[in-house]
Write a structure and sequence with these properties.
With 482 residues, the chain is an alpha+beta fold. The protein folds into two domains: 101-188, Roll (Pdz3 Domain), CATH 2.30.42.10; 192-453, 2-enoyl-CoA Hydratase, Chain A, domain 1 (Alpha-Beta Complex), CATH 3.90.226.10. 26% of the residues lie in helices and 21% in strands. The chain has helices at 2-5, 39-55, 62-75, 86-95, 125-129, 150-157, 213-227, 246-256, 281-284, 316-326, 417-431, 444-453, and strands at 82-84, 99-102, 105-109, 115-120, 136-140, 143-144, 164-170, 178-183, 185-188, 192-198, 201-206, 233-237, 262-268, 275-278, 305-309, 331-334, 342-350, 353-363, 379-380. Strand 10 (192-198) and strand 11 form a beta hairpin. Helix 8 packs parallel to helix 10. The radius of gyration is 23 Å and the shape is globular. Pfam families: CtpB_N-like, PDZ_6, Peptidase_S41.
């Protein structure tokens, strides 16, 4: 089992220019084909191929036709299965290392259709060039990018190390556009950060589960306890954490749970996809430095905890939240999570290409399926005091076309027309709100988490009715920890 796990993980979503993707490698055995190939359909495919080659308005390369056929066949299964060409396969592998070649900026789409800088990564090329949060990218290499999608913008900003890219930026209170030429470099992305937010209370954020995550988490927790040995409460922040390596989820969970308990299980068509993953070193050790969790303060097993989640919390972060919730080790606070509870296995095809194929579902220790449902917080708390901000407008797994169903629960009904109309009325307002910096003094959900740890009232989310007509709910009391 140990050797199998060293090559396993979860597929995550990215949000950086030079995005770090995550993946699931697996030693699952190939299932033999039990019946013959559908000859009639294969004949039709061959006929269509010949027809395109002979009759289409212009010549189409063989490679394009075959690659597109592969892409369409796999993508038709579900939103997370995909054919990976050489570049996509390389990007996927690089993401697990916490490294990528790019500029080092976290980005989002702006209301004007440009690319907004959420934050530059410290000591990255973008940070050294003077790019600031709130800047708008209007051109990349002098090419206008208004209404260009995030993924396409990322492709334009990625490249080989030491190559250059020129950005044209708009900055508030600066009259003329700024033009910056930046050299791409390998970016080492730190997925863990934390601090003492006030005496006795610590905040630990994990932005993605990568190979160094468990080691980095252990180092950060040790530093926090050294800074304040008498911690009375810990907030684990998994908001907008899109997932990553399975070992990271197991290791983070194991740091706070009794040794050896089940963290997550999987079930699928293959016999080897039916597995149980435990909080033991052989299930989470990746770096080869032994059991880094063994050196953590014993108080971590009992310190009162709150886990912050939102709609952007997916995959591996849902595994952590689900395990800590099932064992009643932590209170979950925030918004219902994304609901990506499926396992993707990478099957190399040769020629540096591969297929990413959904092979199983994930289940919490108590047998709850995460798929298309996610984790429902113990305390539903909006992102802001007056509403859930842009978080309330995000798509979840259940909204994706051809998503895998939840085999242990009924899926939520689709949003009504009235709810969608109300959401549209608020979307324009929410887009103008200043981007939230997690862990800051303005972090409303963090403040509510601290209130809970102190036994103070928590302001819960308002009922899910017409959001344009709802007033903020009155503060509700939280249970005191004994």
């Amino acid at each position: 089992m140990g050797s199998t796990l060293k090559n396993s993980g979860l597929v995550g979503l990215g949000a950086l220019a030079g995005v770090a993707f995550s993946m699931q490698f697996s030693a699952l055995a190939q299932k033999p084909v039990e019946q013959g190939m559908p000859l009639e359909e294969l004949r039709q495919l061959s006929d269509a191929y010949d027809l395109i080659k002979t009759d289409y308005v212009e010549a189409v390369p063989d490679k394009k036709l075959l690659t597109d056929a592969l892409t369409g066949m796999v993508a038709s299964l579900d939103p997370h299965s995909a054919y990976l060409d050489k570049k996509a396969y390389r990007d996927l592998r690089e993401g697990t290392q916490g490294k990528f070649v790019g500029l080092g900026i976290e980005i989002a789409q702006s209301e004007e259709g440009y690319i907004k800088i959420v934050a530059p990564i410290e000591d990255s090329p973008a940070w050294r060039a003077g790019i600031k949060a709130g800047d708008l990218i209007t051109r990349i290499n002098n090419e206008a990018i208004q209404n260009l999608g995030i993924d396409e913008a990322i492709k334009k900003m990625r490249g080989e190390p030491l190559t250059k890219v020129t950005l044209t930026l708009l900055r508030k209170d600066v009259a003329l556009p700024l033009v910056m030429t930046i050299t791409r470099q390998e970016i080492i992305q730190k997925s863990v950060k934390g601090k003492i937010v006030e005496p006795g209370y610590a905040w630990l954020r994990i932005s993605q589960f990568q190979k160094p995550t468990v080691d980095d988490m252990a180092a950060r927790l040790s530093a926090l306890y050294q800074q304040d040995p008498a911690l009375k409460g810990l907030v684990l922040d998994l908001r907008n954490d899109p997932g990553g390596l399975l070992q990271g989820a197991i290791g983070v969970s194991a740091a706070f749970l009794p040794r050896g308990v089940e963290i997550v299980s999987t079930n699928g068509q293959l016999a080897n996809s039916r597995q149980s993953y435990l909080g033991k070193p052989e299930y989470y050790t990746l770096q080869g430095d032994g059991d880094v969790l063994a050196r953590l303060p014993a108080a971590l097993k009992t310190v009162p905890m709150v886990v912050l989640v939102n709609t952007g919390s997916a995959s591996a972060s849902e595994i952590v939240a689900g395990a800590l919730q099932d064992y009643k080790r932590a209170v979950i606070l925030g918004s219902q999570t994304f609901g990506k509870g499926s396992v993707q296995t990478i099957k190399p095809l040769g020629g540096d290409t591969a297929v990413k194929l959904t092979t199983a579902r994930y289940y919490t220790p108590h047998g709850r399926s995460i798929q298309a449902r996610g984790i429902i917080p113990d305390f539903l708390v909006d992102e802001n005091a007056d509403g859930d901000g842009l978080n309330g407008f995000r798509m979840r797994e259940a909204d994706l076309e051809k998503h895998l169903s939840n085999d242990r629960d009924k899926e939520s009904a689709a949003s009504t027309r009235e709810q969608l109309d109300a959401q549209r009325r608020l979307l324009a307002i929410e887009r103008k709100r200043k981007p939230l910096e997690y862990g800051s003094a303005d972090d409303f959900q963090l403040a509510q988490a601290l209130n809970h740890l102190k036994g103070l009232p928590v302001q819960l989310a308002k009922p899910a009715k017409d959001p344009a007509a709802e007033a903020p709910a009155a503060p509700a009391p939280a249970k005191k920890r004994k």
